[in-house]
Amino acid sequence: MAAPDLLQRAVTRLAAIQRNDEDLERIRAAETAYMTSITSGDFQAMTEPNKALHMEISRAGKNPCLTGYYEKLLGEGQRLSHLYFDFIISAASTDGMGRDHAEIVEAIAARDADAAEKAAHEHTMLFQRRFLDFMQQNLTSRMKIS
Fold it and tell me: Which of 63, 39, 54 shows the shortest CA–CA distance to 105?
């Protein structure tokens, strides 16, 4: 998880520093699309708007090299997300979902690079914790062997 964490922190920090008003509009529109996907109830479909939001943030940082690497890592994360989104949703309500994105977006809007980087790190750690929780569940514990 070191590479995704480092890249997410870097592109988010850069977005807070480099973004212009048009970038912020695109980021906010992508955040709205992501939040709409949460309320739709189609949790597998949440991965596309999630990736789109993170890509808008990365593009706002104005570093195409980092954006290219970040896009590859987001693709890998997207594949992992498909494995465990149902687990996340069954384990918790959707009430708080998206709050971590909102913190990132607001830090970028405020041009607070430190807060943006911190929120990006916390977002990566949340992803990691959720995935590890999924991997540690015992899917066979309810099976009866006679």
Answer: 54
Q: Is residue 28 part of a domain?
A: yes
70 three-class SS: helix
Residue 112's CATH number = 1.20.120.530
pLDDT tens, position by position, 6-42: 999 999 999 999 999 999 999 999 999 999 988 877 7
Within 10 angstroms of residue 15's Cβ, the number of other Cβ atoms is 29
Neighbours of 130 (CB within 10 A): 18
Domain count, the chain: 1
Local confidence band at 127 (pLDDT 50, 70, 90 cut-offs): confident
- State the DSSP code for 63: -
State how far the Cα of 50 lies from the Cα of 83, in Å rounded to an integer. Answer: 15
Question: Which tokens belong to 72?
Answer: 């590859």
Range of the domain at 93: 3-130
